[in-house]
Amino acid sequence: MLVYQPTLSKVLLIIQTVVVPLVALFYYPKVKNTYWKWLVFYLIFIAVQELYFTYNNSILTLPKTHYFAYIGIPIQFLFLFWLYAIKSLNNKAVFWVFSVLLIVTVLPIEWYSELKTVNSITITLGSLLLMILVFLEFQKQIMNDDILEFKHKRMFYINLGVLLFYVGCVPFMGLYNFIKKEHSIWNSYYLYFVVSNCLLYVSYILSFVCGKKN
Predict the structure, then answer these.
(1) How far apart are CA 167 and CA 185, in angstroms?
(2) 59: how many CB neighbours lie within 10 A of its CB?
(3) What is the C-alpha to C-alpha distance for residues 7 and 13, in angstroms, rounded to an integer?
(4) Nearest to 49 by CA among 29, 21, 24
(5) Fewer beta carbons within 10 angstroms: which end of the chain, N or C?
(6) What is the DSSP string of 31-77?
(7) How far is CA 209 from the centre of its chain?
(8) Segment 43-69, tens digit of pLDDT
(9) What is the pTM of this model?
């Protein structure tokens, strides 16, 4: 582990569990009558989840790895599918198809596959599906006059953050078991993973600060 990794991890934790929830709660009164209020609840959920598992390895009888594989990670993808497909793109069919594809990968199938493999498949598939949604969202923004006011569009900032983190980390997640054997490659990808994760949460902050209701 390189010397900067623990520091970056602490910075990410502070952004996730302190900065972002406080900003979201501050802007809640402005979005409470819109569907954006669910982004506030989502970010608080992420904050509580990350803070809890920073100091605990299980919840009740459920190990940390199983929680994230079957609850934590799927919820994150399903929320983003909902935000993109239903709320932004107005396409319920895409939401349900993508959701079913994701859920199939998180069924309790560890009896014939290692949990790490299942987790990797879920994250890789979810990220690839998000890649499609990111493309459709950018296409939507470019194809109308909204592009002229992109700085005031919440989805512009969220789309940028999702592109950097989820899409950018597909090789790291999908090939994790292979990359971890090459320390120099792993260190480079881990640096990108943490930095892009920080930028993802910064994009959520910017969506509240710079974005207008749309």
Answers:
(1) 18
(2) 14
(3) 10
(4) 21
(5) N
(6) HTTSTTHHHHHHHHHHHHHHHHHHH-SEETTEEHHHHIIIIIHHHHH
(7) 19
(8) 999 999 999 998 988 888 888 888 888
(9) 0.89
